[in-house]
Protein: TolC family protein
Amino acid sequence: MKTKTMLITAFLSLTIGSLMAQTDTAKTYNYNLEQCIEYAYGHQTALLNAALDQKIADAKVKETIGIGLPQISGTADFKDFLKVPTSLLPGEFFNQPGTYIPVKFGVKYNSSLGASINQLLFDGSYIVGLQASKTYKELSQRAYNRSKIETNVAVTKAFYMVLVNNKQIDLLNANIAQLKDQLDQTQALFDNGFAEKIDADRLKVLYNNLTTEKENVLRSLELGKSMLKFQMGMPVDDNLSLKGSIEGVKLDKNSILADSTAYANRVEYALSQTQLKLNQLDLKRYKSQFLPSLSAFGNGSYQYQNNNFSDLYDKSFPTVVVGLQLNVPIFSGLQKINRVKQAEFTVLKSKNDLYNTKNSLNLDIKNSITTYTNSINSLENQQRNLDLANDVLRVSKIKYEQGVGSSIEVTQAQTSLKEAENNYINALYNALISKVDTERATGKIN
Structure:
């Protein structure tokens, strides 16, 4: 029994300690939209990887530059001829014509120390490679910008979703509060014999439905916050509260006007331009392979030879050589010509892709502006419907209290108000999302 108690105590200690550790590691943040975006820029995984791609591209440029710098290497060797090489010399050298005399050339121990240097003087492919590596770095920068834009859009949409949920909860709280008052009044009238039980039951059904809907929205709100934290690259166990409200977001369909040059602000168009530039440099590189290349070289070494190992390094025999090497391509089986043709076709494809990208972006801009305009009109209409629904409910309650209306009218007005609130929330969310999509389409998010 004592052992069992000790085990339970130890388990509880470990569990409580683990929970406390989790609580200690969780951080708390209170951010507005701009702060959420800035946090995402420093923590979102896709953006961090895009930044690493930039560093890779920078290292690639330096690697390419290094090809044109002096290439220096050193060598050292040691040889022990267990059997010294033997050659046969004609016997005439030794007054023994018609025979061959075996003669050993060399000594038992050989060693050498040397260094060589090579310097590229001219190579068309290298010059083009330098230009291409810098363009590749430019491509990685634009890819990073695209990741920033995508992160900005994702965080903004998630942020707005949380604000919409907060607005929905505010509407539900107001609706529940006034419905609770109406339910209490009707119940009191029923208790005093001035109303029927069905009147109170109808209102109670509506009250229960609204309470359940609020609980669902509260759970959706927590899920929305978790989604926002995920888009920001924040640990989902951290605590995040938001500053700001829907009322602070400006929704104006006249603030975004069609611009025939807006496509040029899109990072997708810049990426297509850079890809075309890379393919054109690739074509230039293949053409440059028909040019000769020139390089300079130098070699120096010390040779050591002796039959006694202890005396091997007593005397050295130096050798130094410098020179130039010219390589002139003559014929390569038509391989280079066909590589050039392939590169030319690739450039033509890139030009077609650039045109298609421009056309696609213009369509996206027009579509987003139209959608945004429609969503604002829908939101304004749903706002009017919501105001009318509130007014209808107010009049229905007055008529019911004065005995000239029925409880069914009040119930129907409550149901209409709930439907109007849901339609308003949906229209509000659609307007916010289309606002973000339009700002992205017109290049305002960068």
The chain is about 65% helix and 15% strand. The first strand starts at residue 28 and ends at 31.
